[in-house]
Design goal:
single chain; elongated; 17 helices; 3 domains; 13% strand; Rossmann fold; Beta Polymerase, domain 2; 412 residues; six-stranded parallel β-sheet; four-stranded antiparallel β-sheet; alpha/beta; 58% helix
Length: 412
């Protein structure tokens, strides 16, 4: 079977947060997965892409065998259950290409048009290239996907406003509190997500923001960059006790905020309302803290519902979808024609060889010919060969599916 483009994955639309976090992969785990899947049956090239919204396996290879290899990997490494497999989509050919382009453009994100997804796609691609698991085919797809993203952001209004999960979290907090200017806010985590959250909070007028991180130096660095305060990790309880809002965005394994932590704070807070927004995947905050009086916990799934409830078609979204559709149609032909090039070269060589053999036989049977006639016969023969080869090339470029279904031989 001819190799094709395949995407196997789950995302915020197909799987709840507790399933997504089961299959989330750190950078190190993605590298291990690339090494294992590269050896999988039917897989010629592979990329692994894992964020808080999705985990996807992007493959060039035999569709059936490649999907089965991904299934075996998930079963062996993650103890995949049948009910969980039902949350995974399996996309092929144009559908897979359209999905890859939409993901890169932010059209498949929780926050349509988000900025961060472009960097995440580039990072996953670079990791696959470093691992040697992305070759000519996936390189072409990813290069095109990022090119489509640039076109969408240049030609539509989709990239005119900075949107992301942290910004959506701040909007949710404003719905709950109104102005954030007088609220005590704790930001848990000083990584990239924490940095975006700090900018979002400050941009919306928050004046009392304290960042806490297990590594105090990173908290101090973010505080300097964002114009907020840093708290030494060992002194965090005083900040938590005074907080109205905690936004958690760490990359730490396990819960960063537990039931025991909440129990420790409960007596000091005396039922005073505390809003917790968990932006992390896997989750930072134990869902069981919802049982405490005055505690309102929102995780990514709650945030998704809040975004969906107030979002219609974003400015530029319809135009972006049309660009994606046109780019898929054009790129599919380019991709298949590129993969047909070695076959065309081999066919042209074969035609030249047949022509040479037939000319030799004709000369032996009907010749010898005068020099000018012999040259004319050779020229006519070469012209016929050239026309046949050209016909094949046009067939493959105009109808790339012909190669898959064996129509090339009929053209000959």
């Amino acid at each position: 079977m001819e190799p094709t483009f395949v995407v196997v994955g789950l995302n915020h639309r197909t799987a709840p947060v507790e399933v997504r976090e089961r299959f989330w992969m750190s950078g190190c785990r993605q590298a291990e997965a690339l090494s294992m899947l590269s050896q999988g049956e039917g897989i010629e090239e592979v990329l692994v892409f894992s964020t808080c919204n999705r985990t996807e396996f992007v493959v060039w290879g035999d569709a059936t065998l490649a999907v089965n290899s991904v299934l075996r990997f998930l079963t062996a490494e993650y103890d995949l259950k049948l009910c969980e497999w039902n949350s995974f989509y399996r996309l092929l050919d144009d559908e897979a290409l359209a999905h890859a382009f939409r993901v890169a453009c932010g059209l498949d994100s929780m926050c349509i048009g988000e900025e961060q997804i472009g960097r995440q796609v580039s990072s996953a691609w670079q990791q696959a290239r470093n691992a040697g698991s992305s070759g000519r085919s996936l390189d072409a797809v990813l290069r095109k996907a990022l090119g489509v993203r640039r076109r969408v952001r240049k030609e539509t209004a989709l990239g005119s406003h900075f949107v992301s999960a942290p910004y959506a979290a701040v909007e949710l907090a404003e719905q709950i509190f109104g102005s954030l200017s007088s609220r005590n806010i704790v930001l848990l985590g000083a990584g990239k997500l924490g940095e975006i959250a700090s900018k979002a909070l400050v941009s919306r007028g928050a004046q009392s923001v304290t960042v806490i991180n297990r590594t105090d130096a990173r908290a101090e660095e973010l505080a300097r960059k964002s114009g907020i305060r840093a708290c030494v990790f060992t002194d965090r309880w005083a900040s938590f006790a005074q907080a109205d809002l905690v936004v958690s965005a760490t990359a730490a394994p396990g819960f960063a905020f537990t039931v025991e932590d909440m129990r420790r704070l409960a007596s000091d807070r005396k039922g005073r309302k505390l809003v917790l927004i968990d932006l992390a995947l896997p989750r930072d905050i134990d869902p069981a803290v919802r049982e405490f009086e005055g505690v309102l916990l929102y995780d990514l799934e709650d945030l998704e519902r809040a975004v969906e409830s107030r979002s219609g078609m974003r400015a530029g979204e319809r135009e972006a979808e049309q660009i994606v559709l046109k780019e898929v149609q054009g790129f599919r032909k380019e991709l298949m024609a590129d993969h047909a090039a070695p076959e065309l070269t081999a066919l042209r060589l074969r035609l030249d060889e047949i022509c040479r053999q037939e000319l030799e036989s004709f000369r032996l049977e009907q010749g010898p010919f005068p020099k000018d006639q012999d040259q004319l016969i050779a020229a006519v023969s070469a012209r016929i060969t050239h026309k046949i080869a050209g016909s094949l090339a046009r067939e493959l470029k105009g109808h790339p599916e012909a190669r898959k279904h064996g129509h090339v031989s009929a053209t000959v």
